[in-house]
Structure to design on (739 residues):
């Protein structure tokens, strides 16, 4: 059985004179997995224990009783890592509250240090096949720290908070390191698609990495991203509801609140939960309706009282409560009852059952479990859930009374409406929500996350990996006159931000020398670049060159460029130049490149989303404008190319195949301009598309330029007609082309 190692800032225990296990949603979600995994948990046990002997005793007891491993923090660690960076820098920013965010360099240094402490502890304990599941924002650097030491480790990360928009996340001085830390995971889970979308866009804008639909390509692995809305521990809540303690408490509460309508709020006392706005809404409601039979019951657990913003919030709330009560109380009726303390679960369930409505109006909340708990407990009657549209739970509970938590008038109206709605209406809205909460519980959440995490290997090879030799390379080696037509940018060499930086060097240069010094294959470098540039870069290699997407070619040693269609009409360039210049002016960072037979608008250095948007606009406008002209439009990688129909890689290769009588030709390329090679319906052609994203007509795919270079090196190192190549991870059959 594999071990599942859960890693969270806090262990689910209370260490006082004795050690007690606490029962959060996460604990019960994971307990359900006990038959599939050997469960371990690593985290801070809370408090500060400096005495070594006491630490040893706690460690032994936690290990023996629960299979937990404690991390011990000093007071300085707690101040800087937990109270400081986690709760005073990250938490407010993740919740769109930059005004509450404070930052100190030493906090982040400590955050890094403690993440490393966690990493060391995990590495000390983990066996090769163990699964590591890291929880939440306190440990964002941890996945990459683990990956660095153990590249093959299976690492999941779940973010329990929102992930904010790039405009907010960019405020963090250490934004790159945090993102890189997260991307060390094999899978990152979010509560909602909105958070996932923000994460992708932030990774693009800050790290320049474009995401695929389901994953983000990182240097040596793929980091999958997906949405897993957390649920509640339904069985645990049912057990409380079925307990005698619950019945006793409910009976007592019914007596206390007889004849009253109860409107309930339950939360940690946190500035993200929207308590002051809610109190203002209550003030308005009382003013407007003058009702004397409504009690607003707040159950607020004091939280993070070492952070000044939380202490200030408590004072603000206490003041506001007393103002409202001062204004609206009568003898025997105090409208707001505020309890600054946690309540036992049986009592919490009794309150949920009793309450006519729950008002859950956070200004921002990753999910909000209270909303789901309230729905689940509506087993005797149909209470109304008034829910903030800024809680992740609103995505799943659309039949709730959804409100904007900043709009206090709307909250006041929603409370009034909740008290006036008919039983039938309330039931109609509640039932579908009850079904959803019951089905998608905490166990479902944990299981679905782990299922996705552990099936990552299947996902990484969506198209089947094959032994290629017999199918493709062997015919090439058996041919009497084989040729290689190899595109340059994005195929042989990686794409660079500035096209002039892609000149052959290092590994690429070595390979070009190898290709030039062998005589088994006739090699053509076939690029979209200009003749002058190709001469400058490639004349030192004895290779055939094809420039400007096939417009002209130069055989090795000839010193002369040949244009296949010398009298091609290129007058359209004059018509288009001004129009493209306008696009360039409107898109900062873009530029226009002019070649003999094409105009290329590059937007690689523009804002990535804006550039893409403008490019699509350009393509659609050009398609209408140019339909009667002898040109083709290609939307390539970060460029739009308008090219003469006579500058076509496919027709040039067709011509060269015939005139040189090549009987097999490997054609490799990475973008749309290369598709004309793959489309040639000639048996001699073996098409290889570099990259696994876009659609292609090539028969084979190769994942990256690096992988393609490795393949060419292998091909060159094999004498003619030798044993097949070993199974290669870099070359895959393009399934869409298999019949
Ligand atoms: P929290 O911000 O703590 O969690 P929430 O999801 O509402 O918010 O969970 C609070 C839990 O504490 C609930 O289970 C609730 O019953 C309990 N609780 C609150 N007040 C209590 C009281 N006075 N007495 C007893 N129990 C009380 C973070 C994120 C959320 C996300 C969760 C889970 O901020 O957005 O939903 O993690 O991922």
């Amino acid at each position: 059985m594999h071990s599942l190692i859960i890693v969270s800032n806090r262990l689910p225990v209370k260490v006082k004179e004795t050690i007690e296990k606490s029962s959060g949603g996460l604990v019960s979600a994971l307990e359900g997995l006990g038959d599939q995994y050997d469960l371990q948990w690593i985290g801070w046990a809370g408090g500060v224990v400096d005495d070594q002997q006491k630490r040893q005793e706690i460690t032994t007891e936690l290990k023996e009783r629960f299979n937990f491993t404690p991390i011990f923090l000093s007071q300085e660690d707690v101040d800087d890592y937990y109270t400081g960076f986690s709760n005073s820098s990250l938490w407010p920013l993740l919740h769109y509250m930059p005004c509450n965010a404070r930052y100190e360099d030493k906090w982040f240094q400590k955050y890094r240090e403690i993440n490393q402490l966690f990493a060391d502890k995990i590495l000390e304990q983990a066996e090769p096949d163990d699964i590591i599941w890291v929880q939440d924002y306190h440990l964002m650097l941890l996945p990459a720290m683990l990956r660095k030491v153990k590249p093959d480790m299976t690492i999941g990360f779940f973010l329990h908070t929102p992930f904010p928009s790039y405009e907010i996340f960019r405020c963090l001085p250490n934004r790159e390191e945090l993102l890189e830390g997260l991307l060390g995971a094999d899978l990152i889970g979010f509560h909602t698609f909105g958070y996932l979308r923000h994460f992708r866009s932030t990774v693009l804008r800050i790290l320049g990495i474009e995401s695929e639909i389901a994953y983000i390509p990182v240097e040596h692995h793929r980091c999958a991203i997906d949405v897993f809305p957390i649920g509640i521990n339904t069985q645990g809540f049912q057990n409380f509801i079925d307990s005698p303690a619950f019945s006793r408490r409910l009976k007592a509460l019914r007596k206390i609140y007889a004849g009253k309508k109860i409107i309930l709020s339950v939360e940690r006392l946190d500035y993200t939960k929207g308590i002051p706005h809610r109190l203002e809404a209550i003030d308005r409601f009382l003013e407007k309706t003058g009702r004397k039979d409504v009690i607003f019951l707040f159950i607020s657990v004091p939280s993070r009282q070492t952070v000044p913003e939380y202490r200030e919030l408590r004072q603000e709330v206490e003041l506001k409560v007393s103002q409202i009560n001062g204004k609206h109380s009568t003898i025997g009726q105090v409208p707001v009852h505020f309890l600054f303390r946690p309540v036992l679960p049986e009592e919490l369930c009794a309150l949920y059952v009793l309450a006519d409505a729950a008002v859950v109006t956070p200004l921002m909340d990753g999910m909000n479990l209270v909303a789901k708990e309230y729905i689940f407990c509506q087993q005797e009657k149909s209470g109304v859930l008034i829910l903030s549209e800024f809680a992740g739970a609103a995505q799943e509970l659309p039949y709730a009374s959804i409100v904007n938590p900043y709009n206090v008038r709307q909250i006041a109206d929603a409370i009034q409406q909740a008290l006036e709605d008919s039983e039938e209406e309330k039931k109609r809205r509640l039932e579908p929500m009850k079904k959803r909460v019951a089905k998608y519980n905490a166990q479902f959440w944990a299981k679905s996350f782990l299922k996705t995490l552990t099936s990552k290997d299947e996902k990484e090879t969506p198209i089947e990996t094959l032994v290629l030799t017999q199918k493709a390379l062997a015919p090439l080696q058996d041919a009497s006159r084989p040729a290689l037509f190899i595109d340059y940018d994005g195929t042989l060499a990686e794409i660079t931000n500035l096209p002039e930086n892609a000149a052959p060097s290092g590994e690429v240069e070595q390979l070009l020398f190898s290709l030039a010094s062998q005589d088994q294959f006739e090699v053509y470098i076939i690029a979209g670049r200009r003749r002058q540039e190709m001469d400058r870069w490639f004349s030192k290699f004895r290779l055939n060159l094809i420039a400007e997407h096939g417009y002209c070619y130069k055989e090795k040693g000839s010193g002369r460029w040949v244009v296949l269609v010398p009298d091609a009409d290129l007058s359209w360039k004059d018509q288009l130049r001004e129009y493209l210049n306008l696009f360039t002016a409107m898109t900062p960072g873009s530029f226009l490149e002019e070649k003999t037979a094409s105009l290329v608008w590059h937007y690689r250095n523009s804002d990535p989303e804006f550039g893409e948007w403008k490019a699509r606009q350009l393509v659609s406008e050009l398609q209408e404008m140019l339909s009667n002209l002898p040109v083709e439009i290609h939307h390539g990688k970060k460029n739009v190319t308008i090219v003469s129909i006579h500058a076509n890689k496919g027709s040039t290769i067709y011509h060269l195949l015939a005139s040189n009588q090549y009987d097999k030709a490997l054609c490799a390329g990475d973008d749309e301009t290369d598709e004309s090679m793959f489309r040639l319906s000639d048996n001699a052609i073996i098409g290889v598309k570099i990259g696994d994203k876009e659609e292609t007509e090539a028969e084979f795919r190769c994942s990256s330029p690096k992988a393609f270079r490795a393949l060419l090196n292998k091909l060159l190192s094999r004498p003619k007609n030798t044993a097949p190549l070993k199974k290669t991870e870099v070359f895959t059959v393009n399934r869409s082309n298999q019949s």
About this structure: DSSP finds 26 helices and 29 strands in the chain. The chain has four domains: 3-227, 234-439, 470-568+647-724+731-737, 572-644. The first helix runs from residue 25 to 31.
